[in-house]
Specification:
- The protein is mainly α and 145 residues long.
- It has a domain of 54 residues.
- It is 34% helix and 7% strand.
- A hairpin with a 5-residue loop joins β1 and β2.
- The longest helix has 20 residues.
């Protein structure tokens, strides 16, 4: 009987608030334990496949399934120069390439030249009198030299 004496609601020095907290914890653990379990989804029986004809049986004997190949990572966007000499380069494409570079390298580039050297995409030359920079917010901008 002494084993269960601490569980009684008697005057054992516990405050009412402490009892309520203990009770809430016990109920919470019980609900979590009851809720944890693998749910079974209803399964529908699949109809049997029709029997193959003699011609299909001959061709099916030689069929081999190809192993599943994991999908490849998409190539970085192709950053190209515009045909017009005074046209501004597409900073949006370069920004996407910078985002992919950040994810791939898991670091911030030291400067734009560090990014351009290891980007793996062609970077168009800046317009005359301008240069590329990377801001503190990781935005590519054109600024005066």
């Amino acid at each position: 009987m002494k084993l269960f004496s601490g569980l009684a609601w008697g005057t054992d020095g516990q405050s009412t608030q402490a009892r309520v907290i203990h009770l809430a914890l016990v109920l919470g653990v019980a609900l979590l334990a009851a809720g944890c379990g693998k749910s079974k989804a209803p399964t529908t029986p699949t109809p049997p496949a029709p029997a193959p004809s003699a011609q299909q049986a001959d061709t099916n004997q030689m069929s081999v399934t190809a192993p599943a190949v994991p999908p490849e990572m998409p190539a970085p966007p192709n950053v190209t120069t515009n045909a017009a000499a005074n046209a501004a380069p597409d900073l949006g494409q370069m920004q996407r390439a910078l985002g992919m570079w950040l994810v791939r390298n898991r670091r911030v580039p030291a400067n734009f030249d560090d990014f351009a050297a290891t980007a793996g995409v062609p970077i168009p030359p800046p317009p005359p009198g301008k240069k590329y920079i990377i801001t503190k917010r990781m935005q590519i901008q054109l600024v005066d030299r």
